[in-house]
Design brief:
The structure holds 2 protein chains of 2 kinds. Chain A has helices at about 10-25, 30-40, 45-60, 85-105; strands spanning about 25, 65-70, 75-80. Chain A is α+β, with helices and mostly antiparallel strands. A 3-stranded antiparallel sheet of chain A has the order 1-3-2. The radius of gyration of chain A is 16 Å and the shape is globular. By secondary structure, chain B is mainly α. Chain B has 12 helices and no strands. In chain B, helix 6 runs antiparallel to helix 8. Classes of the chains: A alpha+beta, B mainly alpha. At the A-B interface, helix 2, helix 3 and strand 3 of A face helix 1, helix 2 and helix 4 of B.
Chain lengths: ~110, ~325
């Protein structure tokens, strides 16, 4: 086991959407950095895998993209949440919270026993 | 909802020009690499080292582009279309053999449709008689004695009831049964036999054409196997060709059988011209038969020994 965890598909979607919700319109590179930072550099993100994931979200209508200019005056493609995306983030986040909460109960040492 | 939307978008991606999407993504990747490199330089790296690191973290430009491309369209559909286009091209180079095969399968469809409507008429469903009075009334008389002696008393009795009633077709029960079933039986037997022969001919024809095609391509298939083609993919190569043939044949044969069944119906009382069950069942059944007929040559193709194949001719 390496000390850095790989990112699996289902969670990447939520990370991307959550980051977009927090940052507003952002380009792929910015998103990748943000995800790494948020994870406290625990996640080893293969940047290349981010783009197909973004494309998938765009095809599903959760985000949209347009070309713009970055903070360093560089042409970049910016992604932002759509209305449907905002709804989806809320729903998916709630689901994940519940899942992790349930799992946490199993992982925690039994108190009553 | 969103899945369907995504599928639709990918279908659009499948039909749109590939170069447009590629260019857009190339620009996006380039901007990503440039930003990453810039960050690296800012943290004190040599520009070249910074760019190399950016490339490594990306996981390779070509791999990324490939993954993106696969997500944009529908890769399985693309390869399927490519495979079938290849089969069609090969077939169009051998027009004669294709025509024979298509004709065989078409014949099979006609034959099958005939047999099926026969079965559905005589086995699955009783004769549809909507209004028996149309055909007159039949009086059945049972007697212990000689039937012919009973004829006159019965005739007299009917005349007493209604003098205008015409009495005809007096016959014994045995005669009646024989004549009633004679025509349908004969026709069913004839059509059934022809249908069966047609079906056998179709299978043999298709099998022959596919075997011939495989033997013609022995060299090519040998090279494919020598180059590392797996048996499964060689089998699939031949089967695909058979499938294209079957598709064409069904497309041509189905309407023909439709028209033919009208003709059959005019010969045989009680056969519905366009029996829904028949026409729904025949194409898949025939398709399956065609697949079996192709599968044997396909198996043979897959087991070709490349060394021997390369030495032939």
């Amino acid at each position: 086991m390496g000390e850095k965890a790989d990112v699996w598909q289902g969670t990447m979607t939520l990370m991307v959407l959550k980051s977009l919700e927090a940052m507003g319109p952002q380009h792929g590179y910015g998103l990748a950095r943000r995800i790494e930072q948020t994870s406290g550099d625990l996640l080893q993100l293969n940047y290349g895998t981010l783009y197909p994931a973004l494309l998938k979200l765009e095809q599903e209508g959760y985000i949209r993209s347009r070309w713009g200019t970055s903070e360093n005056n560089r042409k970049a493609k910016f992604y932002e949440l759509t209305k449907a995306g905002q709804r989806h983030v809320r729903k998916a986040a709630a689901e994940w919270e519940q899942t992790t909460e349930i799992l946490a109960r199993f992982l925690a040492p039994a108190e009553e026993a | 909802m969103h899945r369907i939307r995504a599928l639709w978008m990918r279908l659009c991606g499948f039909f749109s020009r590939r170069e447009d999407g590629d260019e857009d993504f190339t620009a996006e990747l380039e901007s990503h690499l440039a930003m990453h490199t810039e960050d690296g330089v800012r943290s004190g790296l040599d520009p070249e080292v910074a760019r190399r690191q950016a490339l490594i973290r990306l996981g390779g430009v070509e791999q990324t582009r490939q993954a993106y491309r696969e997500r944009r369209g529908l890769p399985w559909l693309e390869s399927l279309v490519r495979d079938f286009a290849y089969s069609v091209r090969t077939l169009s180079k051998h027009r004669g053999a294709t025509a024979i095969a298509v004709f065989s399968i078409g014949l099979g469809i006609g034959a099958n449709a005939t047999i099926f409507s026969m079965v559905s008429r005589f086995v699955l469903r009783p004769a549809p008689v909507s209004d028996p009075s149309m055909m007159g009334y039949t009086i059945v008389v049972r007697t212990a004695g000689n039937p012919s002696a009973l004829m006159d008393p019965v005739r007299r009795q009917i005349h007493l009831l209604d003098p205008n009633m015409a009495v005809y077709n007096a016959e014994t029960m045995e005669e009646h049964v024989r004549t009633a079933y004679f025509l349908p039986h004969l026709a069913a037997m004839l059509f059934g036999t022809f249908g069966l022969i047609g079906l056998v001919l179709a299978i043999v024809g298709l099998y022959g054409v596919m075997s011939y095609a495989v033997s013609r391509r022995t060299r090519e298939i040998g090279i494919r196997i020598a180059m590392g083609a797996r048996p499964g993919s060689v089998e699939w190569l031949v089967l695909r060709q058979g499938m294209v043939l079957a598709f064409i044949a069904v497309a041509l044969g189905w309407p023909a059988a439709w028209m033919l069944s009208k003709l059959t119906a005019s010969f045989l009382y009680g056969i519905q011209p366009h029996d829904a069950l028949t026409f729904a069942a025949v194409p898949p059944i025939l398709f399956m038969i065609a697949m079996v007929a192709c599968w044997i040559p396909a198996r043979r193709a897959a087991s070709i020994d490349p060394m021997k194949a390369l030495r032939t001719e």
